[in-house]
Design goal:
Shape: globular
Strand order of the largest sheet: 14-17-18-13-12-20-21
Number of strands: 24
Distance between the termini: 57 Å
Number of domains: 2
Number of helices: 14
Bound molecules: adenosine-5'-diphosphate
CATH class of the largest domain: Alpha Beta
Structural class: alpha/beta
CATH superfamily of the largest domain: Aldehyde Dehydrogenase, Chain A, domain 1
């Protein structure tokens, strides 16, 4: 196979200007396998000096990359995609080990990530301008799209591969060059993506990866937000860090894309097909062990369907297989780290102390938290207000549509929402009223490269995926041809 590539599974160096490098300080930090709590390897603990070096390399590369045609960039991206898809089984093992995802989910993440590289390899050729109608005969109005420059991509641990692929493929398609800062828990997927850009023949400095431990990260992030050589930041992660970056970017009026936390409502109406709703609940809640920003976080069930939904959900939850990540039947792996485990466990304890009933689960052994279903959840419980990021279903009842929409919108965030109804008029009414950026109707799995992923309210700014995903990485330039 032409694109088969023997790559290093766990790189111990970062990737700057097409070279594998140590931190200037020679410092490293260890990365753990959450399933075994054993270290998998060490990566460079880079600081601002290393990051300056990477930004400079990306800036130099931009001077060349910005002059490539969409067709040429499409060719590079397609080549990258060929390497990535040809090596998908080995790539999945990296996610499995650094992120603790069961093998089937690790493979699904590789397919998901690769679908963006493929999509944007096509999109690169279609970043068109426009000629607008002029109000006067002696002027012509052109609008052109140009790449913004060097972009810094800061990514989280829950999709260590796909989110780097999603951001970088859009940025590269648009003609930007990038410096990636992967999450400290999961740097290896990003480093292997870098190795594959090398295999695919990308020019020096177009794609760079800077790894930093927890202590250096805020300084590195701050440099990325303030360096005059960086044109924009794309960040996926917590709302708190998103707000820090938004502030920091204000000093240089940087372009900013933010994909932050969610608090997805999941509403089952009286007309719903409960089997569809249970299927949707299982996929939107238990994928990645509940550690996704589009995970259903609050379940509102119409009182006429509550018992049927609970019964059928419990039956499905009891069939989830926990444990051995290499087993293709496994659905549930460990949470990413002790801090996440403690957070989930504390939220459940708080709910139980305030009257929630545990229908199943409610406990675990670090870092494996049992799939849990809580009934009788009320708005005064912490678990109602916080993004759980774990395998916990919180059930609440409602009586009418207005109440359901009111409760669903009773949050500062607005990423995804899910509704289950067989009433067409209700589907149109409710999807219009929900304050979310994405809405699944009778569907719990809504992410694809073809869709504009993103949120409203405190869930973020901008969209990733689809042709809209190019917008964060391009400036519009208006050109007026006069004296005609
Ligand atoms: P999570 O809660 O999902 O771990 P974070 O927002 O803490 O989310 O992390 C997402 C990414 O943001 C990671 O790559 C992390 O290293 C990075 N990060 C954390 N703090 C900062 C900061 N102050 N500046 C820039 N990046 C940061």
């Amino acid at each position: 196979m032409k694109f088969h590539h023997h790559f290093r599974t766990f790189h111990n160096k970062a990737f700057i200007n097409n070279q594998w490098v140590n931190a200037l300080s020679q410092k490293t930090f260890p990365v753990m396998n959450p399933a075994t709590s054993e270290p998998i390897g060490c990566v460079p603990d880079m600081n601002v000096d290393d990051t300056q070096h990477a930004i400079k390399a990306a800036q130099d590369a931009f001077q060349i990359w910005k002059h490539t045609t969409g067709k040429e960039r499409s060719f590079y991206l397609r080549n990258w995609y060929n390497y990535l898809s040809c090596n998908k089984e080995s790539l999945a093992q990296i996610i499995l080990q650094e992120c603790g995802k069961p093998i089937k989910e690790s493979e699904a993440e590789i397919r998901y990530g690769n679908s963006f590289v493929e999509f944007f390899s096509n999109e690169a050729r279609r970043i068109h301008g426009e000629i607008l109608s002029s109000p006067v005969p002696d002027k012509k109005i052109f609008v052109e799209k140009q790449p913004i420059g060097v972009v810094a991509l800061i990514t989280p641990w829950n999709f260590p591969y796909a989110l780097v692929a999603r951001k970088a493929s859009a940025a590269l398609a648009a003609g930007c060059t990038c410096v990636v800062k992967p999450a400290e828990d999961t740097p290896f997927s990003a480093l292997t993506l870098a190795e594959m850009t090398q295999a695919a023949g990308f020019p020096d400095g177009v794609f760079n990866v800077v790894t930093s431990g927890r202590e250096n990260t805020p300084k590195v992030g701050s440099l990325m937000c303030t360096s005059p050589l960086v044109a924009g930041i794309s960040f996926t992660g917590s709302t708190n860090v998103g707000k820090i970056l938004y502030k920091q970017c204000s000093s240089g009026i940087k372009r900013l894309g933010l994909e932050l936390g969610g608090d997805a409502p999941f509403i089952v109406y009286a007309s719903a097909d409960v089997d569809k709703a249970v299927k949707g609940a299982m996929s939107s809640k238990f994928r990645s062990c509940g550690q996704t920003c589009v995970a259903s976080n609050r379940f509102f069930i119409h009182c006429s369907k509550y018992d049927e939904f609970c019964g059928k959900l419990l039956e499905q939850v009891s069939q989830l297989k926990i444990g051995d990540l290499q087993d293709r039947a496994t659905n549930i792996g460990p949470l990413i780290n002790q801090a996440q485990y403690d957070k989930v466990s504390t939220l459940v304890q708080d709910a139980v102390s305030k009257g929630a009933r545990v229908l199943t689960g409610g406990t675990g052994t670090p870092l494996l938290y049992q799939p849990t279903v809580l009934a009788d959840v009320t708005p005064d419980m912490q678990i109602y207000k916080k993004e759980v990021f774990g395998p916990v279903v919180n059930l609440l009842r409602f009586k009418d549509e207005e109440e359901s929409v009111c409760m669903a919108n009773d949050t500062l965030t607005g990423l995804a929402g899910y509704i289950f109804s067989e009433d067409v008029a209700q589907i149109f009414r409710v999807t219009k009223m929900l304050e979310v950026g994405m809405c699944g109707v009778n569907e719990g799995a809504i992410s694809m490269a073809e869709i504009p992923f993103g949120g409203v309210k405190e869930s973020g700014i901008g969209r990733e995926g689809s042709h809209y995903g190019i917008d964060d990485y391009t400036y519009m330039k208006y050109i007026c041809i006069g004296s005609l």
